[in-house]
Amino acid sequence: MNIYVNERKTEVKQGTxxxxxxxxxxKNADVTVFNGFIIKQDYELKENDTVIFIKKGEIxxxxxxxxxxxxxxxxxxxxxxxxxxVGIAGLGGLGSNVALSLARIGIGKLVLVDFDVVEPxxxxxxxxxxxxxxxxxxxxxDDVIKNCNPFVKIEKRDVFLDETNIExxxxxxxxxxxxxxxxxxxxxxVNTVLSKMSDKKIISASGMAGYFSSNTIITKKIRDNFxxxxxGENEAKPGCGLxxxxxxxxxxxxxxxxxxxxxxxx
Length: 266
Known about the structure:
Layout: E1 2-5, E2 8-11, H1 18-25, E3 31-34, E4 37-38, E5 50-54, H2 62-73, H3 75-81, E6 85-89, H4 93-104, E7 109-113, H5 137-146, E8 153-157, H6 166-169, E9 175-178, H7 183-196, E10 201-205, E11 218-223, E12 226-230, H8 244-262
Helix pairs in contact: 2-3, 4-8
């Protein structure tokens, strides 16, 4: 009889129960999830049942976490995702959210680039917490990512990006995500990539301030290697600040654009 144990297809004897299986698979598990529900009493297993055993606070093995990811987005998708390196320029409201979404889908490697530290005002939209105040954003985001997927390779660059170091910083990445909140830095990065790094794909964002309609934030393909996300209109200014909902929507447009490029859906 075949069932799924921690997302892996497993053959067990007819009549085996969930708690009997726990004794052989993970005796010290605190939680047993049977067909999506936490159970306190034992159940006999049937064909194609699913059982997940969890030890609270324990980091799963890499192969177990990969099995869980594959079960959600199919083997061929995961095999492509884990081979890709993405560079993220700026780790604020856009970049921190993009990085976390990519880590959750099992991206192979992230090159995290920022020169700034976490400030209290960042907490209104960025993927940081009170314990990260005063930390470099590269270090803080590394900590956040490790708490959701510790098997993503992380390279941290604490630098201010300009014309002199963009090419070297991103020479080994497959896709670049522009995530600055400074219009000049946005322009410098995009223009450098388009003029000097034509082998790289770059995804940029502009226009996600305020609390306007979510539906005006869209993804546009500008060139074969250049994508632009946002509503193209609502920049941050007095009376129209950057807030978590629309910033996160734009960030996840960027992350989804990365995913679509990886899977050839351009």
